[in-house]
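A further point concerns the way the authors explain their paired sequence and structure data. Since the whole study asks how a given chain folds, the encoding of that fold should be made plain. A single example would do more here than another paragraph of explanation. An entry of this sort, consisting of the sequence and the corresponding C-alpha coordinates, reads as follows:

_____
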Amino acid sequence: MLKCLIFSSFMLFVTAQEIPPYIKQCRSADPALVECLKGSLHHLRPWLRSGIPEIEMPSVEPFVMDTLSLALTGGPNGYRINLKDMQVYGASNFTVKSITLGEGTKPFDAVVTIPRLVIKAKYTSSGVLIIIPASGGGEFNAVFDGVTADVKGRISSNEKPNGIFLHVDALLLDLNVKRPKLTVAKIFNNNKILTEATNLFLKENGHEILNAMKPQLQKKLSSEFTGIANSLLKNVPRNYFLLD
Protein backbone atom coordinates (compact mmCIF):
# COMPACT_ATOMS: atom_id res chain seq x y z
CA MET A 1 0.00 0.00 0.00
CA LEU A 2 2.81 2.37 0.94
CA LYS A 3 4.65 1.57 -2.29
CA CYS A 4 1.48 2.29 -4.26
CA LEU A 5 1.05 5.68 -2.56
CA ILE A 6 4.70 6.56 -3.17
CA PHE A 7 4.43 5.57 -6.84
CA SER A 8 1.19 7.55 -7.28
CA SER A 9 2.73 10.61 -5.64
CA PHE A 10 5.78 10.27 -7.87
CA MET A 11 3.63 10.06 -11.01
CA LEU A 12 1.62 13.11 -9.95
CA PHE A 13 4.87 14.99 -9.38
CA VAL A 14 6.25 13.99 -12.80
CA THR A 15 2.97 14.94 -14.51
CA ALA A 16 2.95 18.30 -12.74
CA GLN A 17 6.55 18.87 -13.80
CA GLU A 18 5.65 18.20 -17.43
CA ILE A 19 3.05 20.98 -17.57
CA PRO A 20 4.85 24.16 -18.69
CA PRO A 21 4.35 27.20 -16.44
CA TYR A 22 2.73 29.16 -19.27
CA ILE A 23 -0.15 26.65 -19.42
CA LYS A 24 -3.24 27.12 -17.24
CA GLN A 25 -5.34 23.98 -17.45
CA CYS A 26 -9.10 23.78 -17.98
CA ARG A 27 -11.55 20.88 -17.92
CA SER A 28 -13.80 20.29 -20.91
CA ALA A 29 -16.70 19.34 -18.60
CA ASP A 30 -16.42 22.55 -16.59
CA PRO A 31 -19.70 24.53 -16.82
CA ALA A 32 -17.54 27.66 -16.77
CA LEU A 33 -15.23 26.38 -19.53
CA VAL A 34 -15.38 29.60 -21.55
CA GLU A 35 -14.34 31.69 -18.54
CA CYS A 36 -11.53 29.24 -17.82
CA LEU A 37 -10.28 29.46 -21.42
CA LYS A 38 -10.32 33.25 -21.21
CA GLY A 39 -8.26 32.99 -18.03
CA SER A 40 -5.82 30.63 -19.76
CA LEU A 41 -5.28 33.13 -22.57
CA HIS A 42 -4.78 35.97 -20.07
CA HIS A 43 -2.33 33.73 -18.17
CA LEU A 44 -0.20 33.56 -21.35
CA ARG A 45 0.35 37.32 -21.58
CA PRO A 46 3.71 37.53 -19.73
CA TRP A 47 5.17 34.77 -21.93
CA LEU A 48 3.86 36.46 -25.07
CA ARG A 49 5.78 39.57 -24.01
CA SER A 50 9.03 37.70 -23.37
CA GLY A 51 8.72 34.83 -25.85
CA ILE A 52 9.28 31.13 -25.09
CA PRO A 53 12.73 30.14 -26.40
CA GLU A 54 12.33 26.41 -25.66
CA ILE A 55 9.53 26.14 -28.23
CA GLU A 56 10.97 28.84 -30.51
CA MET A 57 7.98 31.13 -29.94
CA PRO A 58 9.10 34.74 -30.48
CA SER A 59 8.09 37.68 -28.34
CA VAL A 60 5.21 39.79 -29.61
CA GLU A 61 6.79 42.92 -28.10
CA PRO A 62 7.52 44.28 -30.55
CA PHE A 63 5.50 42.45 -33.14
CA VAL A 64 7.54 42.73 -36.37
CA MET A 65 6.04 43.02 -39.86
CA ASP A 66 7.74 43.62 -43.18
CA THR A 67 6.05 46.08 -45.55
CA LEU A 68 2.76 47.83 -46.16
CA SER A 69 1.87 50.05 -49.14
CA LEU A 70 -0.85 52.72 -49.23
CA ALA A 71 -2.28 54.87 -52.01
CA LEU A 72 -3.79 57.80 -50.09
CA THR A 73 -4.88 60.03 -52.98
CA GLY A 74 -5.75 59.21 -56.59
CA GLY A 75 -4.48 60.43 -59.94
CA PRO A 76 -1.16 60.11 -61.72
CA ASN A 77 0.58 62.13 -59.00
CA GLY A 78 -1.37 60.59 -56.13
CA TYR A 79 0.26 60.52 -52.70
CA ARG A 80 1.60 57.07 -51.85
CA ILE A 81 3.34 55.74 -48.75
CA ASN A 82 5.41 52.58 -48.38
CA LEU A 83 6.08 51.39 -44.83
CA LYS A 84 8.85 48.94 -43.95
CA ASP A 85 10.57 47.53 -40.85
CA MET A 86 7.28 47.87 -38.99
CA GLN A 87 7.31 47.28 -35.24
CA VAL A 88 4.00 46.94 -33.40
CA TYR A 89 3.86 47.42 -29.62
CA GLY A 90 1.04 46.61 -27.21
CA ALA A 91 -0.36 43.40 -28.74
CA SER A 92 0.31 41.37 -25.57
CA ASN A 93 -1.80 43.72 -23.44
CA PHE A 94 -5.05 42.15 -24.64
CA THR A 95 -8.28 41.25 -22.90
CA VAL A 96 -10.56 38.52 -24.23
CA LYS A 97 -14.08 39.85 -23.81
CA SER A 98 -15.93 36.85 -25.22
CA ILE A 99 -15.42 33.48 -26.89
CA THR A 100 -17.93 31.38 -28.76
CA LEU A 101 -16.56 27.88 -29.26
CA GLY A 102 -17.18 26.17 -32.58
CA GLU A 103 -18.49 22.62 -32.60
CA GLY A 104 -16.80 20.11 -34.87
CA THR A 105 -15.38 21.91 -37.89
CA LYS A 106 -17.31 25.12 -37.25
CA PRO A 107 -15.20 28.24 -36.59
CA PHE A 108 -14.85 29.90 -33.21
CA ASP A 109 -15.51 33.59 -32.59
CA ALA A 110 -13.89 35.93 -30.09
CA VAL A 111 -13.86 39.61 -29.23
CA VAL A 112 -10.51 40.95 -28.04
CA THR A 113 -9.69 44.46 -26.84
CA ILE A 114 -6.30 46.19 -26.69
CA PRO A 115 -6.04 49.61 -24.98
CA ARG A 116 -3.31 50.87 -27.28
CA LEU A 117 -1.33 49.68 -30.29
CA VAL A 118 1.74 51.62 -31.37
CA ILE A 119 3.31 51.18 -34.80
CA LYS A 120 6.77 52.49 -35.62
CA ALA A 121 8.15 52.18 -39.14
CA LYS A 122 10.43 53.63 -41.77
CA TYR A 123 8.58 55.06 -44.72
CA THR A 124 9.07 56.44 -48.19
CA SER A 125 6.52 58.54 -50.03
CA SER A 126 5.90 59.75 -53.56
CA GLY A 127 3.46 62.06 -55.31
CA VAL A 128 1.81 65.36 -54.48
CA LEU A 129 0.27 66.21 -51.11
CA ILE A 130 -1.92 69.32 -50.75
CA ILE A 131 -0.39 70.71 -53.98
CA ILE A 132 3.12 70.21 -52.55
CA PRO A 133 5.52 67.65 -54.11
CA ALA A 134 6.05 65.21 -51.25
CA SER A 135 8.47 62.52 -52.39
CA GLY A 136 10.95 61.48 -49.71
CA GLY A 137 11.22 59.39 -46.60
CA GLY A 138 11.44 59.39 -42.83
CA GLU A 139 9.87 57.90 -39.72
CA PHE A 140 6.21 56.92 -39.42
CA ASN A 141 4.41 56.57 -36.10
CA ALA A 142 0.85 55.44 -35.44
CA VAL A 143 -0.97 55.29 -32.11
CA PHE A 144 -4.25 53.36 -32.14
CA ASP A 145 -6.24 53.87 -28.93
CA GLY A 146 -9.26 51.75 -28.10
CA VAL A 147 -8.67 48.74 -30.36
CA THR A 148 -11.31 46.03 -30.68
CA ALA A 149 -10.65 42.93 -32.76
CA ASP A 150 -13.41 40.59 -33.89
CA VAL A 151 -11.64 37.26 -34.37
CA LYS A 152 -12.90 34.26 -36.30
CA GLY A 153 -10.84 31.12 -36.63
CA ARG A 154 -10.87 27.44 -37.45
CA ILE A 155 -8.91 24.78 -35.55
CA SER A 156 -8.15 21.18 -36.48
CA SER A 157 -6.58 18.36 -34.47
CA ASN A 158 -3.88 15.86 -35.35
CA GLU A 159 -3.23 12.68 -33.36
CA LYS A 160 0.42 11.77 -32.83
CA PRO A 161 2.13 9.06 -30.73
CA ASN A 162 2.71 11.59 -27.92
CA GLY A 163 -0.78 13.07 -27.91
CA ILE A 164 -3.39 15.07 -29.80
CA PHE A 165 -2.15 18.41 -31.10
CA LEU A 166 -4.26 21.33 -32.27
CA HIS A 167 -3.55 23.55 -35.27
CA VAL A 168 -4.96 26.92 -36.27
CA ASP A 169 -5.97 26.45 -39.90
CA ALA A 170 -7.41 29.93 -40.45
CA LEU A 171 -7.62 33.16 -38.50
CA LEU A 172 -9.39 36.34 -39.58
CA LEU A 173 -9.30 39.70 -37.83
CA ASP A 174 -11.62 42.67 -38.15
CA LEU A 175 -10.07 45.67 -36.40
CA ASN A 176 -11.92 48.71 -35.09
CA VAL A 177 -10.03 51.67 -33.65
CA LYS A 178 -11.66 54.50 -31.71
CA ARG A 179 -8.84 57.04 -31.92
CA PRO A 180 -6.09 56.75 -34.55
CA LYS A 181 -3.21 59.22 -34.43
CA LEU A 182 -0.68 59.19 -37.27
CA THR A 183 2.48 61.30 -37.47
CA VAL A 184 5.75 61.48 -39.40
CA ALA A 185 9.15 62.85 -38.41
CA LYS A 186 12.65 63.36 -39.79
CA ILE A 187 11.32 63.69 -43.32
CA PHE A 188 12.49 65.62 -46.39
CA ASN A 189 15.75 66.57 -44.64
CA ASN A 190 13.66 67.95 -41.75
CA ASN A 191 11.82 70.34 -44.08
CA LYS A 192 9.44 72.08 -41.67
CA ILE A 193 6.80 73.01 -44.26
CA LEU A 194 6.55 69.53 -45.73
CA THR A 195 6.57 67.93 -42.27
CA GLU A 196 3.74 70.16 -41.07
CA ALA A 197 1.74 69.65 -44.28
CA THR A 198 2.10 65.87 -44.04
CA ASN A 199 1.15 65.76 -40.36
CA LEU A 200 -1.85 68.01 -40.98
CA PHE A 201 -3.02 65.67 -43.72
CA LEU A 202 -2.55 62.63 -41.46
CA LYS A 203 -4.36 64.32 -38.57
CA GLU A 204 -7.38 65.37 -40.60
CA ASN A 205 -7.67 62.04 -42.42
CA GLY A 206 -6.72 59.59 -39.66
CA HIS A 207 -9.76 57.32 -39.95
CA GLU A 208 -9.66 57.32 -43.77
CA ILE A 209 -5.98 56.37 -43.75
CA LEU A 210 -6.65 53.67 -41.17
CA ASN A 211 -9.38 52.26 -43.42
CA ALA A 212 -6.87 52.18 -46.27
CA MET A 213 -4.39 50.36 -44.03
CA LYS A 214 -6.82 47.84 -42.56
CA PRO A 215 -7.03 45.21 -45.33
CA GLN A 216 -3.26 44.73 -45.47
CA LEU A 217 -2.75 45.26 -41.74
CA GLN A 218 -5.43 42.73 -40.80
CA LYS A 219 -4.07 40.17 -43.25
CA LYS A 220 -0.51 40.54 -41.96
CA LEU A 221 -1.58 40.44 -38.30
CA SER A 222 -3.72 37.35 -38.96
CA SER A 223 -0.80 35.58 -40.61
CA GLU A 224 1.67 36.47 -37.86
CA PHE A 225 -0.67 35.56 -35.01
CA THR A 226 -1.49 32.25 -36.71
CA GLY A 227 2.24 31.45 -36.81
CA ILE A 228 2.71 32.37 -33.15
CA ALA A 229 -0.31 30.31 -32.07
CA ASN A 230 0.86 27.27 -34.01
CA SER A 231 4.40 27.52 -32.65
CA LEU A 232 2.78 27.03 -29.24
CA LEU A 233 0.20 24.40 -30.22
CA LYS A 234 2.63 22.15 -32.09
CA ASN A 235 4.68 21.79 -28.90
CA VAL A 236 1.89 21.43 -26.34
CA PRO A 237 -0.52 18.47 -26.49
CA ARG A 238 -4.22 19.23 -26.16
CA ASN A 239 -4.50 17.40 -22.81
CA TYR A 240 -1.94 19.77 -21.27
CA PHE A 241 -4.36 22.67 -21.35
CA LEU A 242 -7.73 20.94 -21.79
CA LEU A 243 -8.42 17.96 -19.56
CA ASP A 244 -11.23 15.57 -20.53
Remarks:
- The helical segments are 2-18, 33-43, 45-50, 192-204, 206-233, 238-241.
- Confidence is low (pLDDT under 50) at residues 1-17.
- The CA atoms of residues 132 and 150 lie 39 Å apart.
